[in-house]
# Entry
Amino acid sequence: MKKLWGGRFSDGADAFAESFGASIHFDHILAPFDIEGSIAHATMLGEVGILTTGESSQIVDGLRRVKARWERGELEFRISDEDIHMNIERYLTEEIGPVAGKLHTARSRNDQVATDLHLFIRTQILLALEGISALQVALVGLAEGNKNAILPGYTHLQRAQPVLFAHHLLAYVSMLQRDSERFRDLWKRVNVLPLGAGALAGTTFPINRERVAELLKFDGVYENSMDAVSDRDFALEYLNCCAMDMMHLSRLGEEVVLWSTGEFGFVELSDKFSTGSSIMPQKKNADFAELIRGKTGRVYGGLTALYTTLKGLPLAYNKDMQEDKECVFDATDTVLGSLTVAAPMIATLTINADAMRAHASRGFTNATDAADYLAKKGLPFREAHEVVGKLVRHCVEKRTDLDSLSLDSFKSFSSLFDDDIFDAIALETVVNRRTTRGGTGLSAVEDQLKRMQEKLSETAEWTELHRRMIAPSC
# Structure
């Protein structure tokens, strides 16, 4: 196909340089979005009289035939046509002839590609929300099925205080909920139309940008044409949402790796989400949890790369901005793939509640409650803390634990100790007395579960509403 910009040039491009500058090997992903945007643009051109009704209808029908060919996998994209826009126009020309050249009236590839990327990211937000919700549902289901299991909570990876396993899982559900809310908040900055900005200065044709926005289900249009073609804030923000989500998935993956080791033994992974060793027959490795952890760096890299690409660019469009798409596409594949693996991996975990409880019973995880006991008897907490610290040191020296001490031993450290100390530091008591909102007590956890179910339902409704809202109508 003759270059759209070829009139200015008397010589063809260097073969390697042409390949180096082409983007079709990755931006072919934008094909359905490019066609969708072009259909809306051609429809508008016909409505305002820039094209005749016949020309507009002919172009729209041709674009729909091209899309049908793309859906059947019949399109072959060529490097000589540089990018997805020129490849689609070539196929449109094959379908309807020279009138296809009128489609590009009143637009540039600069505002066209920005529109394609907005459309692409808009759909990926919905897919991310569905993936996050599926993982949240898996975590909630595991929590509800193991509400009485107690494991040690950690700080500095040292045993700290006992918590319900369900409480621990719900911490990840809350993290993921923030991820979901970030993606949803991003929507309003993604759902703005750049098309109509031209190369950078707008157009002399009497177009109706608001009509294109209406056809494509955008909430509005960019107010400044130079900003419209040069803005990639929405892509950076999308990558940041992806990076944050991957960070949370990586932390969850690390927990699964630790918990499934012989040293912890809290969980066993399903065979479907484990691998073995080529030399050690006994091995059952948490490879997929490790891969989620490892792939997080790819998304961080994409975010950093795009920030670096954009940091020194003058207005308006620059070829550097072609580098935005591979970052976005790779992050999308990584996040959605990780979520797709994580949800069933979590849902199929086998829980060893006995091992959890055994670990929670060791390491003086009830020491804080012994100090609280004294504080409730009137001893200032700082003094209570010191008393129990000395008790713990005594236990370490005697190779015993607080539960095994006699009442006389307790009283030798403070006369405030009485028979009720043993109930106060019992594992179930330690956990279930923490009933304040957000605490690990069973009643507080059940309250968390209830509120999270409500949030999951609200997210599902929002996602479905916006999926119907952006369904193509042209």
